[in-house]
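[Structure tokenization] protein backbone as discrete codes
[Encoding] learned vocabulary of local backbone shapes
[Protein] chain in single-letter code, fold in tokens
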Amino acid sequence: MLTGGQVAGLIVAVFWAVLVSFLALTLLRLARLLNEAGKLVADLADQAGPLMEDMTRTVRRANEQLGRTDVITRQVHGVTRNVSAVTTIMTSVVGGPLVKAAAFSYGVRKALSNRAGQPHGGDGASRPQLQARHDGKRRG
């Protein structure tokens, strides 16, 4: 039979054996994890180069398009300025005579309407009075 010290030593030895086995298993899993992480990093590094080249091309194309857009914007600004100048010229060339013609036609209409309301002929009778005379002549 075992003595108390031997039993305690046996328990401690079994405990250390279980602990070492657990640590060895944990270290083995950690090694696998680090190996997989290394593979993942290597794959990312392999893919990062072409990805960076694609991104560089995309940024260059975007800059080219922005340059073209800037040129188009400047051209549209010039066209807008030209249209504004043409509008100003057309307003001064056509607008002035149209305003004068409208004023003239208004004046002619006003004069004709005033003349229509004035007496006709030498007897000083107005149009309603002339109408009444004509109506009287027809009756009698």
Summary: Confidence is low (pLDDT under 50) at residues 120-126.
